[in-house]
Design goal:
Shape of chain A: globular
Oligomer: heterodimer
Number of helices of chain A: 0
Structural class of chain A: mainly beta
Strand content of chain A: over 45%
Number of strands of chain B: 11
Structural class of chain B: mainly beta
Strand content of chain B: over 45%
Order of helices and strands of chain B: EEEEEEEEEEE
Largest sheet of chain B: 7 strands, mixed
Largest sheet of chain A: 6 strands, mixed
């Protein structure tokens, strides 16, 4: 059974600080996704990571993937209040095809001025 | 355009009612999904349709019945639900089920309350 674990589950930080969210998964997968969800809203796709060593950056967010360690990280640089949200990592159930996603429990991020 | 449209946005129903949730996308995506999300929990997969055929059913109770009338439309028929079925129901679609990225784009969801 595929398991996806995120930590921390809750993070309160100040604007301007840096922090990293970790995502571990239990079985081999070559696709790792990061989503953002604002309260009461749907999920917004942030990144898809397809291969070992993949790194993607968008603004103050940077995601990386280590398939050998089955670990992905989401790094936040110089946080701003607008980044407050819940962040989920997710892994496809299998290596391809029309498979569903298994999500981590999510990291609830609060960025305070 | 990565829009997935879900209706209604909110739904309140009794345990004896029959209702349907609707999901539509006009992006030419060939896979569509239903997820259930309880408060402060991650989404959980319910069903996957690939090329209009049901490919995954995650052991969902029969009171939930999916339907994919065409490649743009996905329905979820509800009957004799229980209060514990109250949740946010999310629809998603992806372009090519076998494609490299297979990013799933989510709709805004239907918030369901079962009384």
């Amino acid at each position: 059974e595929l398991k996806v674990e995120q930590n921390p589950l809750f993070l309160s930080m100040q604007e301007g600080k840096n922090y990293t969210i970790y995502c571990n998964y239990s079985t081999t997968s070559d696709r790792l996704y990061w989503y953002r969800q604002d309260p009461g809203k749907s999920l917004e796709s942030l990144f898809v990571l397809l291969s070992n060593g993949a790194v993607k950056q968008e603004g103050r967010l940077m995601a990386s993937l280590d398939t050998k360690a089955r670990l992905s990280t989401l790094h936040i640089t110089a946080a701003v209040h607008d980044l407050s949200a819940t962040y989920f990592c997710a892994v496809l159930h299998s290596g391809g095809g029309a498979d569903g996603l298994t999500f981590g429990k999510g990291t609830h991020l609060i960025i305070q001025p | 355009d990565t829009e997935v449209t879900q209706t209604p946005k909110h739904l309140v129903m009794g345990m004896t009612n029959k209702k349907s949730l609707k999901c539509e996308q006009h992006m030419g995506h060939r896979a569509m999904y239903w997820y259930k999300q309880k408060a402060k929990k991650p989404p959980e997969l319910m069903f996957v349709y690939s090329y209009e055929k049901l490919s995954i059913n995650e052991s969902v109770p029969s009171r939930f019945s999916p339907e994919c009338p065409n490649s743009s439309l996905l329905n979820l028929h509800l009957h004799a639900l229980q209060p514990e079925d109250s949740a946010l129901y999310l629809c998603a679609s992806s372009q090519d089920p076998g494609g490299a990225q297979n990013i799933q784009y989510f709709g805004a969801g239907t918030r369901l309350s079962v009384l």
